[in-house]
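Contributing: when you submit paired examples, paste them exactly as shown. First protein:
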Amino acid sequence: MKIATQNQAFFPATILEKFKFIKAMGFDGYEIDGKLLVDNLAEVKAAIKETGLPVTTACGGYDGWPGDFIEERRLNGLQQIEGILEALSEVGGKGIIVPAAWGMFTFRLPPMVSPRSLEGDRKAVSDSLRWLDEVAARTGTTVYLEPLNRYQDHMINTLADARRYIEENDLKHVQIIGDFYHMNIEEDSLTEALHNNRDLLGHVHIADNHRYQPGSGCLDFATLFDQLRADGYQGYVVYECRVRADNLAEAYQASLNFLREC
Protein backbone atom coordinates (compact mmCIF):
# COMPACT_ATOMS: atom_id res chain seq x y z
CA MET A 1 0.00 0.00 0.00
CA LYS A 2 1.35 3.43 -0.93
CA ILE A 3 1.17 5.60 2.19
CA ALA A 4 1.64 9.39 2.21
CA THR A 5 1.12 12.10 4.79
CA GLN A 6 -0.05 15.65 5.16
CA ASN A 7 2.01 18.08 7.21
CA GLN A 8 2.29 17.83 10.97
CA ALA A 9 3.26 20.59 13.41
CA PHE A 10 6.34 18.65 14.52
CA PHE A 11 7.69 18.37 10.96
CA PRO A 12 10.53 20.76 10.01
CA ALA A 13 9.41 24.19 8.87
CA THR A 14 11.54 24.57 5.76
CA ILE A 15 10.34 22.84 2.62
CA LEU A 16 13.44 20.81 1.82
CA GLU A 17 13.91 19.64 5.40
CA LYS A 18 10.22 18.74 5.54
CA PHE A 19 10.59 16.54 2.44
CA LYS A 20 13.70 14.89 3.88
CA PHE A 21 11.96 14.22 7.20
CA ILE A 22 8.88 12.68 5.56
CA LYS A 23 11.01 10.43 3.37
CA ALA A 24 13.22 9.37 6.29
CA MET A 25 10.15 8.28 8.25
CA GLY A 26 9.30 5.92 5.41
CA PHE A 27 6.36 7.64 3.75
CA ASP A 28 5.87 7.24 0.00
CA GLY A 29 4.65 10.77 -0.69
CA TYR A 30 3.53 14.14 0.61
CA GLU A 31 0.04 15.64 0.34
CA ILE A 32 0.82 19.34 0.32
CA ASP A 33 -1.22 22.39 1.25
CA GLY A 34 -2.30 24.02 -2.00
CA LYS A 35 -1.27 27.54 -1.04
CA LEU A 36 2.15 26.34 0.12
CA LEU A 37 2.62 24.71 -3.27
CA VAL A 38 1.52 27.72 -5.32
CA ASP A 39 3.52 30.22 -3.26
CA ASN A 40 6.70 28.10 -3.23
CA LEU A 41 6.54 26.23 -6.51
CA ALA A 42 10.24 26.49 -7.41
CA GLU A 43 11.30 25.40 -3.91
CA VAL A 44 8.91 22.44 -3.97
CA LYS A 45 10.25 21.37 -7.37
CA ALA A 46 13.79 21.51 -6.00
CA ALA A 47 12.84 19.45 -2.94
CA ILE A 48 11.19 16.80 -5.11
CA LYS A 49 14.28 16.63 -7.30
CA GLU A 50 16.70 16.34 -4.37
CA THR A 51 14.73 13.83 -2.29
CA GLY A 52 12.78 11.89 -4.89
CA LEU A 53 9.72 12.20 -2.67
CA PRO A 54 6.64 12.92 -4.80
CA VAL A 55 3.91 15.41 -4.12
CA THR A 56 0.92 13.12 -4.40
CA THR A 57 -1.93 15.58 -4.11
CA ALA A 58 -2.96 18.90 -2.58
CA CYS A 59 -5.47 19.49 0.19
CA GLY A 60 -6.67 22.92 1.28
CA GLY A 61 -5.09 26.24 0.42
CA TYR A 62 -8.15 27.97 -1.05
CA ASP A 63 -10.65 30.35 0.54
CA GLY A 64 -14.05 29.52 -0.98
CA TRP A 65 -15.99 26.27 -1.26
CA PRO A 66 -17.55 24.72 -4.38
CA GLY A 67 -20.84 24.79 -2.48
CA ASP A 68 -20.30 28.15 -0.78
CA PHE A 69 -23.38 30.14 0.20
CA ILE A 70 -21.63 33.35 -0.88
CA GLU A 71 -21.28 33.46 -4.66
CA GLU A 72 -18.24 35.75 -4.73
CA ARG A 73 -16.43 33.46 -2.33
CA ARG A 74 -17.42 30.36 -4.33
CA LEU A 75 -16.01 31.85 -7.55
CA ASN A 76 -12.86 33.04 -5.80
CA GLY A 77 -12.30 29.56 -4.40
CA LEU A 78 -12.67 28.01 -7.84
CA GLN A 79 -10.04 30.36 -9.24
CA GLN A 80 -7.67 29.42 -6.43
CA ILE A 81 -8.29 25.70 -6.99
CA GLU A 82 -7.52 26.23 -10.67
CA GLY A 83 -4.15 27.74 -9.71
CA ILE A 84 -3.41 24.79 -7.43
CA LEU A 85 -4.26 22.28 -10.17
CA GLU A 86 -1.97 24.13 -12.57
CA ALA A 87 0.85 23.99 -10.01
CA LEU A 88 0.18 20.29 -9.36
CA SER A 89 0.53 19.59 -13.07
CA GLU A 90 4.03 21.10 -12.93
CA VAL A 91 5.20 18.82 -10.11
CA GLY A 92 3.48 15.61 -11.17
CA GLY A 93 0.78 15.74 -8.51
CA LYS A 94 -2.35 13.71 -9.14
CA GLY A 95 -5.01 16.18 -8.03
CA ILE A 96 -6.71 18.11 -5.27
CA ILE A 97 -9.09 17.09 -2.47
CA VAL A 98 -12.29 19.13 -2.56
CA PRO A 99 -15.33 18.81 -0.26
CA ALA A 100 -18.56 20.64 -1.06
CA ALA A 101 -17.85 22.80 1.99
CA TRP A 102 -16.39 22.50 5.46
CA GLY A 103 -17.81 24.00 8.63
CA MET A 104 -20.29 26.17 6.75
CA PHE A 105 -23.55 24.64 7.95
CA THR A 106 -24.95 21.48 9.54
CA PHE A 107 -28.50 20.31 10.06
CA ARG A 108 -27.34 18.77 13.36
CA LEU A 109 -26.81 22.06 15.21
CA PRO A 110 -28.95 25.20 15.56
CA PRO A 111 -30.38 26.94 13.64
CA MET A 112 -30.94 23.66 11.67
CA VAL A 113 -32.50 25.59 8.80
CA SER A 114 -30.24 26.15 5.84
CA PRO A 115 -30.14 29.60 4.21
CA ARG A 116 -30.34 27.86 0.84
CA SER A 117 -32.64 25.18 -0.56
CA LEU A 118 -31.44 21.67 -1.31
CA GLU A 119 -31.97 22.45 -4.99
CA GLY A 120 -29.76 25.51 -4.59
CA ASP A 121 -27.10 23.36 -2.94
CA ARG A 122 -27.10 20.92 -5.84
CA LYS A 123 -26.91 23.68 -8.42
CA ALA A 124 -23.97 25.44 -6.74
CA VAL A 125 -21.97 22.25 -6.23
CA SER A 126 -22.79 20.90 -9.70
CA ASP A 127 -21.87 24.17 -11.41
CA SER A 128 -18.56 24.20 -9.56
CA LEU A 129 -17.74 20.58 -10.31
CA ARG A 130 -18.50 20.92 -14.01
CA TRP A 131 -16.17 23.91 -14.20
CA LEU A 132 -13.44 22.12 -12.22
CA ASP A 133 -13.85 19.04 -14.41
CA GLU A 134 -12.80 21.16 -17.39
CA VAL A 135 -9.83 22.59 -15.49
CA ALA A 136 -8.73 19.09 -14.48
CA ALA A 137 -9.00 17.92 -18.09
CA ARG A 138 -6.82 20.81 -19.24
CA THR A 139 -4.18 20.30 -16.55
CA GLY A 140 -4.13 16.50 -16.62
CA THR A 141 -5.18 16.28 -13.00
CA THR A 142 -8.11 14.97 -10.97
CA VAL A 143 -10.57 16.55 -8.55
CA TYR A 144 -11.16 14.23 -5.59
CA LEU A 145 -14.64 14.92 -4.22
CA GLU A 146 -14.67 14.33 -0.47
CA PRO A 147 -17.74 13.40 1.59
CA LEU A 148 -17.55 14.84 5.10
CA ASN A 149 -19.50 13.81 8.17
CA ARG A 150 -22.86 15.40 8.97
CA TYR A 151 -21.41 17.75 11.57
CA GLN A 152 -18.98 19.35 9.10
CA ASP A 153 -21.09 19.51 5.93
CA HIS A 154 -24.75 19.10 5.04
CA MET A 155 -24.42 18.40 1.30
CA ILE A 156 -22.18 15.36 0.67
CA ASN A 157 -21.81 12.87 3.52
CA THR A 158 -21.40 9.41 1.98
CA LEU A 159 -19.47 7.94 -0.93
CA ALA A 160 -22.83 7.35 -2.61
CA ASP A 161 -23.62 11.07 -2.30
CA ALA A 162 -20.38 11.91 -4.10
CA ARG A 163 -21.05 9.26 -6.73
CA ARG A 164 -24.41 10.82 -7.51
CA TYR A 165 -22.82 14.18 -8.32
CA ILE A 166 -20.25 12.54 -10.58
CA GLU A 167 -22.77 10.45 -12.48
CA GLU A 168 -25.50 13.09 -12.78
CA ASN A 169 -23.05 15.66 -14.14
CA ASP A 170 -21.17 13.16 -16.33
CA LEU A 171 -17.86 14.23 -14.81
CA LYS A 172 -14.80 12.61 -16.37
CA HIS A 173 -12.02 14.01 -14.19
CA VAL A 174 -13.70 13.89 -10.77
CA GLN A 175 -13.29 10.87 -8.52
CA ILE A 176 -14.24 10.01 -4.95
CA ILE A 177 -11.97 10.24 -1.93
CA GLY A 178 -12.91 7.99 0.97
CA ASP A 179 -11.90 9.27 4.41
CA PHE A 180 -12.00 6.53 7.05
CA TYR A 181 -12.83 8.99 9.85
CA HIS A 182 -15.82 10.50 8.07
CA MET A 183 -16.89 7.11 6.71
CA ASN A 184 -16.87 5.66 10.23
CA ILE A 185 -19.56 8.20 11.15
CA GLU A 186 -21.67 8.06 7.99
CA GLU A 187 -21.41 4.65 6.30
CA ASP A 188 -23.32 1.55 7.39
CA SER A 189 -20.27 -0.49 6.40
CA LEU A 190 -16.90 0.96 5.49
CA THR A 191 -15.85 -2.10 3.50
CA GLU A 192 -19.11 -2.22 1.55
CA ALA A 193 -18.91 1.50 0.75
CA LEU A 194 -15.34 1.09 -0.50
CA HIS A 195 -16.27 -1.95 -2.57
CA ASN A 196 -19.46 -0.48 -4.02
CA ASN A 197 -17.60 2.61 -5.21
CA ARG A 198 -14.33 0.94 -6.20
CA ASP A 199 -14.62 2.12 -9.81
CA LEU A 200 -14.66 5.79 -8.76
CA LEU A 201 -12.46 5.61 -5.65
CA GLY A 202 -9.31 7.52 -6.52
CA HIS A 203 -7.89 8.58 -3.16
CA VAL A 204 -8.10 7.67 0.53
CA HIS A 205 -7.54 9.62 3.75
CA ILE A 206 -6.83 7.76 6.95
CA ALA A 207 -7.22 8.44 10.64
CA ASP A 208 -8.51 6.28 13.45
CA ASN A 209 -12.08 6.49 14.74
CA HIS A 210 -11.31 9.46 17.00
CA ARG A 211 -9.26 11.36 14.36
CA TYR A 212 -5.92 10.52 15.97
CA GLN A 213 -3.14 8.48 14.38
CA PRO A 214 -4.02 5.04 12.93
CA GLY A 215 -3.51 2.24 15.41
CA SER A 216 -4.43 4.33 18.44
CA GLY A 217 -8.19 3.69 18.22
CA CYS A 218 -10.56 0.93 17.22
CA LEU A 219 -10.75 0.94 13.41
CA ASP A 220 -9.81 -2.36 11.78
CA PHE A 221 -7.20 -1.14 9.32
CA ALA A 222 -6.13 -4.65 8.29
CA THR A 223 -9.64 -5.44 7.07
CA LEU A 224 -10.01 -2.06 5.35
CA PHE A 225 -6.64 -2.41 3.60
CA ASP A 226 -7.53 -5.96 2.57
CA GLN A 227 -10.71 -4.59 0.98
CA LEU A 228 -8.75 -1.96 -0.94
CA ARG A 229 -6.30 -4.61 -2.17
CA ALA A 230 -9.09 -6.99 -3.16
CA ASP A 231 -10.70 -4.22 -5.19
CA GLY A 232 -7.42 -3.43 -6.95
CA TYR A 233 -7.00 0.03 -5.44
CA GLN A 234 -3.86 1.66 -6.88
CA GLY A 235 -3.97 5.10 -5.26
CA TYR A 236 -2.42 6.52 -2.12
CA VAL A 237 -3.70 6.35 1.42
CA VAL A 238 -2.82 9.59 3.17
CA TYR A 239 -2.54 10.43 6.84
CA GLU A 240 -4.97 13.20 7.80
CA CYS A 241 -5.05 13.05 11.56
CA ARG A 242 -4.04 14.56 14.83
CA VAL A 243 -1.35 12.88 16.92
CA ARG A 244 -1.81 12.07 20.60
CA ALA A 245 1.33 11.03 22.50
CA ASP A 246 4.08 12.34 24.72
CA ASN A 247 6.54 12.00 21.84
CA LEU A 248 4.68 12.95 18.66
CA ALA A 249 7.35 11.89 16.18
CA GLU A 250 7.79 8.48 17.81
CA ALA A 251 4.04 7.90 17.87
CA TYR A 252 3.71 8.86 14.22
CA GLN A 253 6.54 6.52 13.26
CA ALA A 254 4.98 3.71 15.30
CA SER A 255 1.67 4.28 13.55
CA LEU A 256 3.27 4.02 10.13
CA ASN A 257 5.10 0.87 11.19
CA PHE A 258 1.78 -0.57 12.37
CA LEU A 259 0.12 0.14 9.03
CA ARG A 260 2.98 -1.48 7.11
CA GLU A 261 2.01 -4.73 8.84
CA CYS A 262 -1.68 -4.45 7.89
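Second protein:
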Amino acid sequence: MRVLLSIFLLAFGSSFAVADTVVAARNIRHNTVIAPSDLKLVATDMAGGFTSIEDVVGQEARVVLYAGRPVLANDIGPPALVERNQIVSLIYATGPLMILAEGRSLARAGVGDRIRVMNLMSRTTVTGSVAADGSVLVSQPHFQNR
Protein backbone atom coordinates (compact mmCIF):
# COMPACT_ATOMS: atom_id res chain seq x y z
CA MET A 1 0.00 0.00 0.00
CA ARG A 2 2.84 2.41 0.83
CA VAL A 3 4.48 1.66 -2.47
CA LEU A 4 1.30 2.58 -4.35
CA LEU A 5 0.96 5.82 -2.35
CA SER A 6 4.59 6.74 -3.06
CA ILE A 7 4.15 6.09 -6.78
CA PHE A 8 0.96 8.17 -6.83
CA LEU A 9 2.63 11.11 -5.06
CA LEU A 10 5.63 10.96 -7.39
CA ALA A 11 3.44 10.83 -10.48
CA PHE A 12 0.76 13.37 -9.57
CA GLY A 13 1.89 15.22 -6.46
CA SER A 14 4.79 17.09 -8.06
CA SER A 15 2.98 18.27 -11.18
CA PHE A 16 2.88 21.97 -10.26
CA ALA A 17 3.33 24.33 -13.18
CA VAL A 18 6.28 26.65 -12.68
CA ALA A 19 6.28 29.96 -14.56
CA ASP A 20 8.09 33.28 -14.41
CA THR A 21 6.38 35.70 -12.04
CA VAL A 22 7.12 39.39 -11.42
CA VAL A 23 8.27 40.05 -7.85
CA ALA A 24 9.48 43.17 -6.08
CA ALA A 25 13.28 43.41 -6.06
CA ARG A 26 13.13 45.67 -2.98
CA ASN A 27 10.45 47.00 -0.65
CA ILE A 28 8.28 49.52 -2.53
CA ARG A 29 6.19 52.01 -0.58
CA HIS A 30 2.57 52.63 -1.50
CA ASN A 31 1.87 55.55 -3.88
CA THR A 32 5.26 54.99 -5.57
CA VAL A 33 5.48 54.74 -9.35
CA ILE A 34 7.20 51.45 -10.19
CA ALA A 35 10.43 51.48 -12.24
CA PRO A 36 12.08 48.52 -14.03
CA SER A 37 14.84 48.40 -11.39
CA ASP A 38 12.19 47.76 -8.71
CA LEU A 39 11.22 44.40 -10.22
CA LYS A 40 12.63 41.03 -11.19
CA LEU A 41 11.36 37.76 -12.66
CA VAL A 42 11.55 34.54 -10.65
CA ALA A 43 10.29 31.04 -11.35
CA THR A 44 7.42 30.18 -9.01
CA ASP A 45 4.25 28.10 -8.93
CA MET A 46 2.05 30.92 -7.56
CA ALA A 47 -0.95 31.77 -9.71
CA GLY A 48 -2.38 35.26 -10.14
CA GLY A 49 0.83 37.23 -10.55
CA PHE A 50 2.14 39.13 -13.56
CA THR A 51 4.39 37.29 -16.03
CA SER A 52 5.84 40.36 -17.75
CA ILE A 53 7.74 43.24 -16.14
CA GLU A 54 6.43 45.61 -18.85
CA ASP A 55 2.87 45.12 -17.51
CA VAL A 56 3.89 46.50 -14.11
CA VAL A 57 6.37 49.29 -14.97
CA GLY A 58 4.78 52.75 -14.80
CA GLN A 59 1.98 51.63 -12.50
CA GLU A 60 1.61 52.92 -8.95
CA ALA A 61 1.82 50.69 -5.88
CA ARG A 62 -1.52 50.78 -4.05
CA VAL A 63 -0.06 48.88 -1.07
CA VAL A 64 3.45 48.22 0.22
CA LEU A 65 5.16 45.67 -2.06
CA TYR A 66 7.65 43.54 -0.15
CA ALA A 67 10.90 42.27 -1.67
CA GLY A 68 10.61 38.76 -3.09
CA ARG A 69 6.80 38.67 -3.05
CA PRO A 70 4.78 38.46 -6.26
CA VAL A 71 3.07 41.60 -7.55
CA LEU A 72 -0.68 40.98 -7.86
CA ALA A 73 -3.24 42.87 -9.94
CA ASN A 74 -4.94 44.45 -6.91
CA ASP A 75 -1.58 45.69 -5.59
CA ILE A 76 -1.03 48.19 -8.41
CA GLY A 77 -3.00 50.70 -10.48
CA PRO A 78 -2.61 53.72 -12.73
CA PRO A 79 -0.63 56.60 -11.23
CA ALA A 80 -2.65 59.30 -9.48
CA LEU A 81 -3.18 62.54 -11.41
CA VAL A 82 -5.14 64.23 -8.66
CA GLU A 83 -3.87 64.55 -5.08
CA ARG A 84 -6.00 65.09 -1.98
CA ASN A 85 -6.86 68.81 -1.45
CA GLN A 86 -5.75 69.72 -4.99
CA ILE A 87 -7.78 72.36 -6.83
CA VAL A 88 -9.34 70.76 -9.93
CA SER A 89 -11.68 71.84 -12.71
CA LEU A 90 -15.20 70.44 -12.42
CA ILE A 91 -16.92 69.91 -15.76
CA TYR A 92 -20.61 69.17 -16.09
CA ALA A 93 -21.68 68.61 -19.69
CA THR A 94 -25.01 67.46 -21.04
CA GLY A 95 -26.04 68.14 -24.63
CA PRO A 96 -25.06 71.71 -25.56
CA LEU A 97 -24.84 72.79 -21.88
CA MET A 98 -21.39 72.89 -20.22
CA ILE A 99 -20.79 74.21 -16.70
CA LEU A 100 -17.25 74.76 -15.41
CA ALA A 101 -16.36 75.29 -11.76
CA GLU A 102 -13.42 74.90 -9.41
CA GLY A 103 -13.38 72.25 -6.74
CA ARG A 104 -11.13 70.74 -4.09
CA SER A 105 -10.47 66.99 -4.40
CA LEU A 106 -11.21 64.94 -1.31
CA ALA A 107 -8.96 61.99 -2.26
CA ARG A 108 -6.18 60.83 -4.60
CA ALA A 109 -7.24 59.39 -7.95
CA GLY A 110 -5.96 58.31 -11.35
CA VAL A 111 -7.48 58.43 -14.81
CA GLY A 112 -10.97 56.92 -14.81
CA ASP A 113 -11.24 56.70 -11.02
CA ARG A 114 -14.37 58.04 -9.32
CA ILE A 115 -13.59 60.82 -6.85
CA ARG A 116 -15.49 63.12 -4.50
CA VAL A 117 -14.86 66.83 -5.00
CA MET A 118 -16.13 69.83 -3.02
CA ASN A 119 -17.39 72.65 -5.26
CA LEU A 120 -15.65 75.77 -3.95
CA MET A 121 -18.52 78.14 -4.79
CA SER A 122 -21.47 76.18 -3.39
CA ARG A 123 -19.56 74.06 -0.83
CA THR A 124 -21.47 70.97 -2.00
CA THR A 125 -19.78 67.65 -2.59
CA VAL A 126 -20.12 66.02 -6.01
CA THR A 127 -18.76 62.81 -7.49
CA GLY A 128 -17.12 62.50 -10.87
CA SER A 129 -14.54 60.68 -12.96
CA VAL A 130 -10.98 61.91 -13.43
CA ALA A 131 -10.16 62.75 -17.07
CA ALA A 132 -6.71 62.42 -18.68
CA ASP A 133 -6.03 66.15 -18.21
CA GLY A 134 -6.75 66.00 -14.46
CA SER A 135 -10.18 67.61 -14.63
CA VAL A 136 -13.20 65.89 -13.06
CA LEU A 137 -16.22 65.07 -15.22
CA VAL A 138 -19.36 65.27 -13.11
CA SER A 139 -22.21 63.13 -14.31
CA GLN A 140 -25.88 63.98 -14.06
CA PRO A 141 -27.66 62.07 -11.27
CA HIS A 142 -30.42 59.81 -12.54
CA PHE A 143 -33.58 60.12 -10.48
CA GLN A 144 -36.51 57.79 -10.77
CA ASN A 145 -39.97 59.29 -11.11
CA ARG A 146 -42.16 58.33 -8.20
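If you have annotations for the second protein, write them as plain sentences, like these:
The longest helix spans residues 2-13.
The chain is about 10% helix and 35% strand.
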